[in-house]
Each structure stands twice: as C-alpha cells, then as structure tokens.
Amino acid sequence: LSLLGPAAADFRVKFDVETTGGPSSFTVLVHEDWAPIGAAHFKELVQAKFYDDTRFFRVIPTFMVQFGLSGDPKISTEWRSKTIQDEPVKVSNKPGYMTFAKTGAPNSRTSQLFINYVDNGRLDGMGFSPFGEVEG
C-alpha cells in the first residue's frame, strides 16, 4: 500500500492485493473536495499503514466489498475510538466509489471502508459520503 502524489489536494493510493488468481493491484483516486473529513482520515490511516496486511472480509457481488479491520486486535482497538464526524454527501455512491462504513449512530465512521460494485445511490440519504474512486 503506498501513497502516490503530493500530500495536498487530491491524491492516489495504490493497493497491492493477493487474490486466488495471484498478485494484483488497484489504485484509488481520493477527492478531498467530495468528503474532506473522510479523505483526511483515510490519508491518516494509510500513512499509519493501517490497511497493510488486511483482508476484504465482506464481499457481496451485487452490492459492495468491505475491508478495514486490522489483523492486530490492539491496532483495531486503538482506531475504533478515533471516530470522525459525519459530513454531507456531495457525490452519489456509484460503482467503483469508495466510502467509509458506519453504524446507524451519528459520527460513527472509523477505519472500515467499502467499494461500491453497483449504483448504491440509496445509501446517499443514509449519510454514506464517497471520498474516492477506483481507477481503471
């Protein structure tokens, strides 16, 4: 996992992944103007190497893929308490867009993320604010 580009404004993060078909990668372009709080928190998590050696733990082909639980319980506990404020949904949850998962409680975003496989515009009214998009 590596941060690509300048530290200010939009930035890219490359994810190196192991699949049943072998090694692969994908890049997420983060748009700070879409969800500034989410984008900043994601950058902090990436720089802390939180997502290194994590797994996709929820895959629903007609919905989304979810990840963001550390394999180290101490790290998960540390970040679980670092919730971030909700923010307005500026762009819809379209295929390939990345969003923080949250509970039904206000301001409950922590480290878990999901990437939409389909148009999940119905999530917009629930406060799921996309902050990035998978490129390619």
The geometry reads as globular
CATH topology: Cyclophilin
- What is the percent of helical residues? 10-25%
Say how many strands there are. Answer: 8
**Number of helical runs?**
2
Average the pLDDT over all residues and give the rounded result.
93
Low-confidence stretches: none
Beta-strand portion reads 25-35%
In the CATH hierarchy, what is the class? Mainly Beta
Rounded radius of gyration (Å): 14 Å
In the CATH hierarchy, the architecture is Beta Barrel
Q: Major sheet: size, sense and barrel closure? A: 8 strands, antiparallel
Strand order of the largest sheet: 1-2-3-8-6-7-5-4
Q: Which structural class matches the secondary elements?
A: alpha+beta
Order of helices and strands: EEEHEEHEEE
Number of domains as seen in the coordinates: 1
CATH superfamily: Cyclophilin-like
Query: Alpha-carbon distance between the termini?
Result: 17 Å
Description:
15% of the residues lie in helices and 32% in strands. It is of the alpha+beta class. It has helices at 36-47, 73-80; strands at 2-4, 11-19, 22-30, 56-60, 64-67, 97-100, 113-116, 130-135. A hairpin with a 2-residue loop joins strand 2 (11-19) and strand 3 (22-30). The protein has a single domain (11-135), classed as Cyclophilin, CATH 2.40.100. It has an 8-stranded antiparallel beta sheet, covered by helices on one side. InterPro entries: Cyclophilin-like_dom_sf (IPR029000), Cyclophilin-type_PPIase_dom (IPR002130), E_coli_cyclophilin_A-like (IPR044665). Keywords: Isomerase, Rotamase. Its EC number is 5.2.1.8.
